[in-house]
Amino acid sequence: MGLLHRTRARLNVLMAVVLVTLVGVACVRAGVSVDVVRKAAGIPESAEGVGKFINGAHALVLPLLVMAAAISPLALIGGGILVLFGSRRGIQIVVTSLGVLLLLGSVTALVD
């Protein structure tokens, strides 16, 4: 019973990966793009290649940093309370929230 269950679970994961890959390839072949994000980020249509990525990163990093900075104190408090009650997950929550802030704060330097 255990082997059959594991085999089915792996087959389900494989089918999901194949389905997502096929949908992604179909979207790329059809030329589907996310124009809403491009317009909101202020990326010019003349930008090509890496220029699109750099402009998008510069335009999106500040809102992401603000959102992470708003959630981070709550995660720190929640993680601290979990550590206080003896949970091992509390340290992971604290470190993850600080790591996300550090990564988002340095993403501009990483892109440039």
**Alpha-carbon distance between the two ends:** 54 Å
Q: Which residues form runs of ≥5 with pLDDT under 50?
A: none
Based on Cα principal axes, name the global outline: flat
Q: Major β-sheet, in short? A: none
- When the domains are counted, the total is 2
Q: Spell out the helices and strands N to C.
A: HHHH
Mean pLDDT: 80
Helix count from the secondary structure assignment:
4
Strand element count: 0
Gyration radius over CA: 21 Å
Report the sheet-strand fraction: under 5%
Give helix % range. over 70%
What would you say this structure looks like, in words?
- The protein is mainly α and 112 residues long.
- It has 2 domains: 1-32; 39-111, no CATH class.
- The chain has 4 helices and no strands.
- Helix 3 runs antiparallel to helix 4.
- It is flat, with a radius of gyration of 21 Å.
- It starts with a helix and ends with a helix.
Quick description:
With about 110 residues, the chain is an all-alpha fold.
What brief labels describe this structure?
112 residues; mainly alpha; 84% helix; flat
Topology at a glance:
Elements: H1 2-30, H2 35-41, H3 50-84, H4 89-111
Helix pairs in contact: 3-4
